[in-house]
Each structure stands twice: as C-alpha cells, then as structure tokens.
Amino acid sequence: MTEKLSARKLRERRREQMLRAYEKNRRRNLLASPGKHDFVIVLDHLKAGYNVPKIFRSAEAFGAHEVQLIDIGPFDPSPAKGAFRQVPARFFDDFRQSREDLHDRGYTLYALSPNSSHTLSETVLPGKSAFIFGHEEIGLSFDPKDYPDIHLLRIPQFGRVESLNVSIAASIVMYEYTRQQQA
C-alpha cells in the first residue's frame, strides 16, 4: 500500500514541477522574438505531451516566426531544450480564431492530408506560409472543406506505415519551407 502511495505522490510531485516549469517558460515566452523565417506552425488540439515541445525545438532550429497552440494545455517544456522560451507562442481556444488571425496577416494556410494530390515538395510555398497540424489520433478539429482557403498537402511516403509522427512531419515541412526560401 505504501508503495502505491509513494508512486502516486511521486507522480503528483513531478506534475507540480512540470506545471511550475511550464508557467515559468510561458512567462519568459512573452519576451520571445520571431525567428528568421516568416512561417507559422499551427498546432490544432495536439496532446500536450511529448510532441508539442519537440515541435517547438524544431521551430526554433528552422527559425519559425511563431507557433500557435489551439486548445493545448500545459506541457513539460524540458524536451524543447529552451525553445519554448525562444519561439513566440500564441494561444487560441479554437481554430476559427487562429485562422482569422493568420488570414488578417496575409498568410497562406496549408494542412497535411494523406489524400491530397499535391505534394509538399512540388508546391511552391510563399514567404508567409502557415502550416496546420492536427491531433495525433483524430486529425484536424475542423473539416477542411469548410475552409476553401486552406491548401491540402501530403508528404510522399514509400513505406507501409499510414502516417508520420506529427513532430517528424512538422520538421519535414519546416525543412522544405526553409529549403525553398533559401533557394
């Protein structure tokens, strides 16, 4: 019985530490400056665990302008290796708010879809591009058909797996964007 109690207390203590680190990093994020490139990563209802900080880490490495988080709760910032403090984060309750913000600022919106006839590598990406990534299991929180201004892209895959991990897919998209912008 005491082992179960100790394990529970340890989990609670770790969660409290994670929440303190998250709040501290979120306050520091207010001072973050946009990166070298004018692309935005939109994280639509992702699980608040491992992938979100990994995407921040890649966003910092590729010089993202900002990361928008839609209905994503606190997460452990330690896998981001400090990137959560470096890349500006904007928080929204729903996708509509994020889309309006990006549309008003002149961004072209893209979402990944395995059924798209347009591949990432064959699409010319404008300087002001925003890339939307949905929940790891259920996908986007909206129907792309309701937003004809969102362009669907796919990352070509040649193996048997159905999809890539969301943080890997985001890194591939960021790489392709920066490759095109530097060409």
Percent of residues in beta strands: 15-25%
Determine the N-to-C terminus distance. Answer: 63 Å
**CATH topology type:** Alpha/beta knot
The CATH architecture can be named as 3-Layer(aba) Sandwich
Instruction: Count the E strands.
Output: 6
Q: What integer is the average pLDDT?
A: 93
Helix content: 25-40%
Describe this structure in words.
This protein has a single domain (2-182), classed as SPOUT methyltransferase, trefoil knot domain (Alpha/beta knot), CATH 3.40.1280.10. It has helices at 2-29, 51-61, 83-86, 95-104, 166-182; strands at 39-44, 66-70, 89-92, 108-112, 129-134, 150-153. α2 (51-61) packs parallel to α5. α2 links the parallel β1 (39-44) and β2 (66-70). It starts with a helix and ends with a helix. With 183 residues, it is of the alpha/beta class. It is globular, with a radius of gyration of 17 Å. The model has no long low-confidence stretch (mean pLDDT 93). Strands 3-2-1-5-4-6 form a six-stranded parallel β-sheet, with helices on both faces. The longest helix has 28 residues, at 2-29.
In short:
The protein is an alpha/beta fold and 183 residues long.
